[in-house]
Amino acid sequence: MDAFFELAQQALAAGPVGRGPYADGAYFAIDETYPNSGWKEYVALTVLNGRIASVNWSAVNRNGDDKKAYDKAGKYNMVRFGKAQDEWYVQAEKTENHLIATQDLKAITYKDAEGHTDDIAGVSVHVNSLYELAEKALANGPVALGPYANGGYYATEAEFGSSGWKGFVSLFVSNGNLVNVYWSAVDKDNRDKQTVAKEGGYGMIKASPIGKEWHEQAAAVQSYLLSTQDPKKISYKDDKGHTDDIAGATVHVNDFYALVDQAMKSGVKKY
């Protein structure tokens, strides 16, 4: 809410402008899957008086890190390791400012299939994802503001279980809403359980009464929390933590919800 009022003050200070074509409100869109980079990109927009007043283009990884905050803390280092002309967050902000200046999702030209452009001075990263996600966000329509503090959250179990896995959960909040959830685990070789299961190395599907591998059931649990937006909205049918609330999941989910609660209580990640 503070950000909204700050934008309103800036708009008043700038003086009257013509009303833009968009409905006022907050907008959001995020990629559906993690790419090879490990960063799932997202865009959050705020529209005031029909005009795009703010743009936040960033990404979240499986640990719940926000790419901009992670980069500003000196942990991404695109200049040092990639010999880029500027850090990623600086180039992202220049791209955001370009969209705010043009107010036009079509006012961008690409010079290659990867989505690079010569339209924005000082920007060498691909920018097509920002424009594609912004278009998707506006098509989705305004979202209601939720109760949670924006940012990434993370919690992990203290020890490896008898199964050899140590569970963890990451959450990401934008506009006060849970927008990304990742539930997995690591083994002593630091392998990710969802990845191992996807690659056929876990083998739950052989014994699964619903014919689903562990990562598929984990995805169903993640989606359920995203739909309810409430870590308390779950009921268990036994003391092992199984539930009938989630279609597509016969695994126990009490550990997941305990980690979600732990992550939320720990607060937004700091760097």
Automatic annotation (TrEMBL):
Q: What is this protein called?
A: FMN-binding domain-containing protein
Q: What is the lineage of its organism?
A: unclassified sequences, metagenomes, ecological metagenomes
